[in-house]
Structures
1.
Amino acid sequence: MHRVRPPLTRLLALGALVSLWAGIAVPAGADQIADKKAEAQRIASQLDAQSNRLADLAEQFNEARLQSEKVSAQAAAAQAEVARLQAQVDDNRQAVRGQAVAAYVRGGISPSANMDTTDLDPSRMEQYVSSIIGQRQDALDALRAAQAALAERQSALDAAKARARGAVARVNSSKLAAASAQASQRATLSKVQGELAGLVAAEAQRRAAEQARKAQAALAARQARDSTAARSAPRPAGSSAKPVKGAPAEPSGPPPGPPASGASAAVAKAKEQIGKPYEWGAAGPNSFDCSGLTMYAWRAGGRSLPHSSRAQWSATTRVSVSAVQPGDILFYGSPIHHVGIYVGGGQMVEAPETGEYVRYASIYRSDLVGAGRVY
């Protein structure tokens, strides 16, 4: 059984009671509440900044892990190639050794030679033996060169593996430091009186609503502008209207086709995960990070996605935010560090951040970058 977060309405109700109490308190009490509100806003700002930092670190961690896996696969393939060519070296070396024995025992004439040895003069015999020796030397030189090249390649791959491991270690260290800082902030919140926690929750809700309003307004403005431009005289090829600041980029060209046939299964699987905890680098079945959730959901839809929000951006086809359909993936941040899967009605299912749980959320945020469709 997964823990469920206390209803936000309870926290908001507490915040409302505090506000009511502040309204009837004496001036000194009002000053105290004003101070608490200011402190709540300050802590909410700190938590927002820390959450963004953690999300970016989580994405760096996922990318470093993908790179490490890629390099490890390359190293394994190179190792197999080394083994194959080493076997070829051994076979050729054995063949050259056999040639040397034949040359010594038979005077340089192989049993398969179609010539009468009784008529072979010494100069021709010497020429033939030199040819055998030259062929053997060429073969050995080629094999030595191949071995040297393979050794150099293996060394480079080993160095790349070490760098990849180092990158993962560094990001993991940063992750632990950032998570520790956020845990400290949350501990501070838990120590203060309940009214401050309610005020922080109310402030977070207010900010989310404000972000959604601004994002929707920016998108509506862009759509209106594009509609007006479409009705105006034809513009030169390649020209475009100036984008509205903060509006997500809308792809040009014909609209993409419908999502893959597994979209409904992906959405259903995502909804099943609601209430499960967020965990760095996790991709189910008991916990998730943001890209781990979308990857896990779409696996149920019969499609494979990489475990990285930035890699998922590259793996999907751009679609207008105004035309998103259930199963599409929403991308956030610059650089991209968060994703969610659209489920309809302006809502997505997301794995938000450390200490939170998979949940429904509005797709409209100030850092909305765009949407991607899985085919």
Note: The chain is about 60% helix and 5% strand.
2.
Amino acid sequence: MGEAWQPIFLGEESYTVTTPGEFFLECLFHLADQTSDAALKTQYDDAATMSDKNSLKRECLTALRGFATKDGKRLLVIVENFHILINDQISTGAVELIARLSDVTLFGVLATSVSQTGAENDDARLAGFEKLLLRPSSLDEC
């Protein structure tokens, strides 16, 4: 990852995430945990008490951008099962979340998504993202 990127590894299942603000709060939590940055931990603790969705989103994005600016890095958000987050958990806020994650001055995204039908591959909300389709592994490959 080196000098240009700071990875943020989100948990495989982030069941508590239902809004864009909660997604960025989860990012802030994992970034603080992964870097052991006390200032980020304090910002997370303060943000976690917010009940207003817009204030939560704004505070988390401000903290994330502040960290990235201070360290001169972009944030690489690594998230599994992205399709569940945007389709089932966040749903109505998914367009806003994707728009925020599309800010290439701050974020890069590496996400996995499984699909039985392939419908997510044609999701217009993800038009700006590069998709790499993987075929199922054989038993020998597994």
Note: The chain is about 45% helix and 10% strand.
3.
Amino acid sequence: MYHYFGSRRDLLRAALRKDAQRRFKEIHSGDSLPFAARWRRFFRIMVAERDAVELMTTLVLDGDIELRTMPLRTETSALLKADVENGTLAPDVDLVGTHAAIVSFTWGYLVYRDTLAREFGVPADELDDRVGVVWCST
């Protein structure tokens, strides 16, 4: 492993980069949707991409300061600003706080997803649906 990747972090970064462009393209394909629909779509994509979130979380916990947890930050910030301009979001909404909450909620839920489903005694897919409905309606 060290011969090919140099370090554990480099291995994790390589695994994370593997399908990054495909994930970014899939996320971008929903850019024209209004805020709530775009968020539901993002949540569903990330549920399907749990491995990437787990890799990112491992790197964060490992102290990787080079990791970008929001590689589409500029684009997403522009979309949130447009949501305010078109009235989808309140004019006084904290865009940085909203963006951070979306990322934090999604990553946190996906890290704990299987454990939560087991503790609640429900299938993980069912919990995804239930959490998606609750979060996306707030």
Note: The mean pLDDT is 87.
